[in-house]
Amino acid sequence: MNFFKNIKLIALLLFSWILITCSRADEDDDVLSQEDISNIILIMKNESTGISQTYNYTLNSATNPIIKLNDGATYTVEAIFKNGNEDETESIKNAKDEHFLIYDFQSSQISLTREDDESSTRTDGAKVGLKTKWFVQKAANGSEPKLILTLIHDANAVSEVQTGTTFGSVEGGETDAKGTFEIRN
Predict the structure, then answer these.
(1) Rounded Cα–Cα distance for residues 135 and 132 (Å)
(2) Between the CA atoms of 118, 120, 121 and 127, what dihedral angle is there, to the nearest 10 degrees?
(3) DSSP class per residue in 15-48
(4) 177 near 151, Cβ under 8 Å?
(5) What is the pLDDT of residue 146?
(6) Is 159 exposed, middle or buried (0-12, 13-18, 19+ CB in 10 A)?
(7) Hey, is 98 helix, strand or coil?
(8) Burial of 104 (0-12, 13-18, 19+ CB in 10 A)
(9) Which one of 13, 105, 157, 161 is most buried, counting C-beta atoms within 10 A?
């Protein structure tokens, strides 16, 4: 009988140890998940006019914001990530080596350069993409022009290089947030 009591006690201790070691509390506090980001906000300033516009994408929304761009114009763009009223952008900066933004301008001719400062430049030298500059050759260059903006977490490798209409690529990682913005003139 004592043997079975000891087996039960060992099993209970082993089960407790497994629960403790597999707890999500052990994960990094700065790991964001899709559930932790509710909005992707782009603040765009037309460099020639000085006029700023804000475009707010709500994750899982049935409608997409429409970004109005002028052909031939240059825009300075800041990406902000929110969870309700809480700004999660600082969390991304605090874990900048674990994050990277991919900009995919479908059916548009837009050139992008990353303008991140030290606060959002990774230790491998790649810029996360929270601050960018867009030169618009042609906002609408086909049917349904749009920007698909993807925040990647924990990629094995990142590249700022443009491939087709996409600025940036990753190997591995998970999507923390993905937003679609329609583009119009």
Answers:
(1) 10
(2) -130
(3) HHHHHHHT-GGGS-TT---GGG--EEEEEEEETT
(4) yes
(5) 98
(6) middle
(7) helix
(8) middle
(9) 105
According to DSSP, residue 123 is labeled T
User: Is residue 80 helix, strand or coil?
Assistant: strand
Integer angstrom CA distances of residue 23 from 91, 176, 181 = 21, 20, 37
Would you state the structure tokens that stand for residue 169, as one six-digit string? Answer: 């690529």
Nearest CA-CA partner of 183 in 79, 84, 101, 65:
65
Give the pair of three-digit tokens for residue 73.
């114009």
Q: Would you mind telling me the total number of residues written for the chain in this entry?
A: 185
Question: Would you call 185 helix, strand, or coil by DSSP?
Answer: coil
How many helices, marked H, and strands, marked E, lie in the chain?
Answer: 2, 12
User: Which phi and psi angles does 105 have, rounded to 5°?
Assistant: -95, 90
21-28: average pLDDT: 39
Tokens in use for 50? 């000085």
Residue 60 pLDDT grade (very low, low, confident, very high; cuts 50, 70, 90): confident
For 19-28, 45-54, 111-120, 133-142, which range has the lowest pLDDT when averaged over its residues? 19-28
Residue from 39, 6, 20, 25 nearest 178 by CA: 39
DSSP letters spanning 55-67: EEEETT-SS--EE
